[in-house]
Design brief:
The chain has 165 residues and is of the alpha+beta class. It has one domain. The chain is built from 5 helices and 4 strands; from the N terminus they run αααβββαβα. The protein has a 4-stranded mixed β-sheet, with helices on both faces. Helix 1 crosses helix 2 and helix 4 crosses helix 5. It is globular and about 50 Å long. The termini are far apart.
Length: 165
């Protein structure tokens, strides 16, 4: 395997480690409130990513609500049309820049609209390649993980069946 592939893979693993450790810290501090918007939760998690000394050791830069520039005509308001993603982590190696993205969505076990939004503006944005090279995070605010995942999968199956007909 090439150096670039190995470096990129290691960087992605570091991104996961940073976001998981930040999440665990927010849990231990009990700072996140269940009525918060997803941007509130993301902001708190990002604060802990920034405070993690490993981020400096690994030379990882991070920001929230990052534009993902696309090749679109440059007319007034063009930047408002760029997709935005919740987290962007980046690093450099030699002459290469590596990005990894996380998109986050609030979700509740018994909330159809939030599960549908998770699919439409989360999963589908990765499938369509609006968002690339990243992962989707679900902030489970109510319910059980297994039941919520089952509910999302049921909605995905229904969508798949509608597309067949």
């Amino acid at each position: 395997m090439s150096y670039k592939f190995n470096y990129k893979r290691a960087f992605e693993q570091r991104c996961f480690q940073l976001i998981i450790e930040a999440y665990k810290t927010t849990l231990s501090e009990r700072v996140i409130q269940l009525d918060w918007n997803e941007n509130d939760i993301s902001s708190e998690i990002h604060r802990h990513i920034k405070e993690n000394p490993l981020r400096i050791t690994w030379k990882v830069s991070s920001n929230v609500e990052s534009h993902i520039p696309k090749n679109i005509p440059k007319v007034k308001g063009f930047a408002d049309k760029f997709p935005r993603i919740d987290f962007r982590l980046t690093t450099f190696s030699q002459r290469n820049e590596y990005d990894y993205f996380f998109e986050a969505k609030n979700i509740k076990q018994n909330d159809y609209a939030l599960k549908r939004r998770y699919i439409n503006t989360g999963i589908n944005n990765f499938i369509s390649k609006k968002y690339e090279n990243g992962s989707l995070i679900g902030y489970l605010l109510e319910g059980k993980i297994d039941a919520t995942v089952k509910g999302i999968n049921t909605l995905l199956e229904k969508t798949k069946e509608k597309q067949k007909n």
